[in-house]
What does this fold into?
Amino acid sequence: MVTLASVPNGSLGNANRRRFALTQGLLAEVRRARDAGEDRQFAIDNPRGLSVRVRAGEAAFYVQSRGPNGIKKRKLSLIGEIKISAVKLLAEAVIKAIKKALDPDVVIAAWKEKLNETETEVAQDHAEATAMGFWTFGTTIDQFMARTVTKDGITKNKLSPSSLREIKDRLRDRLEAAPLMTRSVKELRFENIEEVRDKIDASGGGESAGAKFTDLSKRVLKWGAKFRRRMTGLDPTYPWWLALAHEYKPQDRSQRFLTPAQAGMLISLLEGVRALEDRSNDAVFGALQLVWLIVQRSAALVGMESLRSDQWKDDPVPEREGWRVFTWIADNVKGKRETKLSIPPVAIAVLERVAKNAKALTDIDTNWAFPQARNIYLLRSYANSNNSDGIRRYDRSITPSALNHALDSLAGRKPGWPNLLQMVGLPNRIGPHDLRRSLTTFFENIGLGSYASALLDHKVTGTDKMSEQVAAVTQGVYSGADRVVFKAEGLVLWLAAVLPYYEKAKADPRLQAAIEARRASLEQNKKSGLEKRSTTLVAKRTSMTSQRTRRALES
It folds into this structure.
């Protein structure tokens, strides 16, 4: 018989219970007792709660520990199935689960499935999340977006509409991230976010798409750990999400701007391809034209209300007959303050054209300057039945991303589309910030940079200088603090520079070549689409025929 040395135990209550170090010598004694048919039990000193029991010719490791729901005991494995170092780790994990009122069987099952340490921890966290009802990643994002603040008795969302759209488009609704949305945040790991980031980068959705997903994930997880720990189970003392990173660095875009000649060409190109397609919805190209005419941020522009709205007022200044003043409420603009702009007739004509198209398309008088065309059949139905609630629900504006997608198609970044921008001498990539740089560069070149600041609604001190006569005329429509007069002067200068090039571009042979290339690609894409649809229908019919034949044979 092997002589075993017990570990000293100073507790008088346990004086007659010996504890043993888990060694090969102890296991040799266990095997001897098993083979001799003896019943023995050896309490292990480290970790406390682990024991080796010999019963009915079987020698196995057991764990016993007290948790919130009482004492639990679990069999881990036979002594020949696991190494000493491994059984100690397994015992510690099972004891931890018991003490936290989690299911210890999850840990044991993970070991049996040969999961590694990280996978076992994930299995534990999944069990805890299920037991405690912790939020999924998708729910955490939704709760982050749904936060509100109340001021002066008015409750509104903490995030701006543009921020909400960004989180929804770049994080919540990313196709690559769909599997993460149903998993609890408690069980997520660094590798999960990183894997999705790499998939997004490989998808060709833009250089910054993966980086934006990573940064937004960090932002939401940090909030969940700091302010909603009870619902997420995240541990702020172990903020693994802070280690998330990406290699994206914005390129130097200081030279990415359009001259007035290029801006005129772009507006003319949009006009040419818009008419080409007999478009079912004119809102996107109309918005792109308008954004370069009145040089406003795309997020604010697509949220403009229709010309029927009370947000529109006639400009009372005689020199601006036909101009109309639009007011953006504070919640709908980046600066979070009410903004006014007097809009010239050339831009009003675009709005009227889009509204006429939308009316013919949906049979409703839309509330938006640039409405979506996703729910036209529902809107027609609600219009016929005078269902105002249904109309209000499905009458929505386009989003800034729609403008970016349209510019991508013009630049040939979609399969089957030619690069029209390159054909007419424009940069291959045109984005929202290019508009601001274009405006700033134009006015700085003529020594009038303050006009750019006013049109971009930068904060300034003081108000516009207006004569007493003008101030009296404009009272009730806008004040000096709105800088409408100053902005209108800036728009006059901008349009005087751009519109002649817009008219000149219509006769440019490069524009005609680009329009013909677009026409050819439309015809080819339409043909390819019909062929694809025909193939799909044939496959469906073949499948249905096979199913009917199989059912007939089975009967």
